[in-house]
Structure formats: structure tokens, C-alpha cells
Design brief:
single chain; 19% strand; five-stranded mixed beta sheet; 41% helix; 5 strands
């Protein structure tokens, strides 16, 4: 049977929805706004979990109206939670970059796509040397009002801003 590992934010409460939409053997790892760091302990846990359960796909999933993301973009009421400081900085940075790229359309999807692409690249880099078989890593955004998931913008669309001297 197909096995997927979902990295989700616990404030989105998406476990049941994912299980209903994607009829696989689904496994979950939660961190606020998908803000987990790729430290040795976390990567080792994920690597062992992937091997143990023969996982073939990993998805970062966030709701378009994720409370932590919206707070990072707005009032920052949770900014007193020290572990979220780097996360809030990254979200604000992604907001600036996405404004330069997405003049029209869904800027929230752009911000989330930039952020999740960064997390995907970090995890891919860490797992490439630790796993024998390649693993697919992607990102999805959940729209509650439509009860649907959409893929994030491609990393090719979410170009990083670079300065050349």
C-alpha cells in the first residue's frame, strides 16, 4: 500500500481531512506552522521513520488560513514564543519576496509556496545523503471553504532574489 508522511501544523487539525482525501497509509509529524528545524535529532527521527514504514512520499501541508502564518503576517501575538522568532522572520522575508514576484493573484499562496519550497529544499538536502532510495517531497495548501488541496507553486516559479555587485 502507498505510504505518505505529512508534515503539518497542529493548529490546522488536518489529520482527519488528509485521511479522508488521500486513502493511503498516512503518517503525521506536527510543528507550529511547519517551523521545525532540520537539526540532527529531527532529521535522524524522520530518516528512521521513513525507513521503518517504507515511506515513498513526504508532503508539507498548511491551511491557507493557518493561524501561525496569519499571526506572523499580522499582529504577531505569538511572537513571545521564542521558538517562533526565526519562523516569523522567514515569513516576513517571504512576504517581501513574493510581493516582488506576484503583483496579482493569491499572494498568500505565493508566501506559503516560498516558505514551503524552502523547507522542502532543506529537508531534501538533509535526506539525500541519508537514504538509499529517492523520496518525493512536495507541498500542499488546504482551502477549508472548498475542502480541497492545491499544490504549492513550483520552486521554479518561486525564484529567490539575488543581488549581484
Amino acid at each position: 500500500m502507498h505510504k505518505c508522511f505529512y508534515l503539518i501544523c497542529p493548529t490546522d487539525c488536518l489529520e482527519h481531512t488528509i485521511n479522508m482525501k488521500f486513502k493511503h497509509d498516512n503518517y503525521f509529524y506536527g510543528s507550529l506552522g511547519n517551523s521545525f528545524s532540520c537539526d540532527c535529532k529531527t532529521i535522524d527521527y524522520i530518516r528512521n521513520f521513513i525507513k521503518k514504514h517504507n515511506i515513498k512520499e513526504i508532503y508539507f501541508v498548511l491551511s491557507i488560513d493557518n493561524k501561525i502564518i496569519l499571526d506572523a503576517l499580522g499582529q504577531q501575538e505569538f511572537s513571545n514564543i521564542k521558538i517562533l522568532n526565526n519562523f516569523y522572520y522567514e515569513i516576513k522575508k517571504q512576504k517581501k519576496i513574493s510581493k516582488a514576484s506576484f503583483h496579482r493573484g493569491n499572494s498568500q499562496l505565493g508566501i506559503l509556496s516560498y516558505y514551503l519550497n524552502k523547507k522542502i529544499n532543506e529537508l531534501q538536502l538533509q535526506l539525500t545523503n541519508l537514504l538509499n532510495d529517492p523520496i518525493k517531497i512536495g507541498g500542499k495548501i488546504y482551502y477549508k471553504n472548498q475542502n480541497s488541496f492545491t499544490n504549492i507553486y513550483s520552486d521554479l516559479v518561486c525564484l529567490q532574489k539575488h543581488h549581484l555587485n
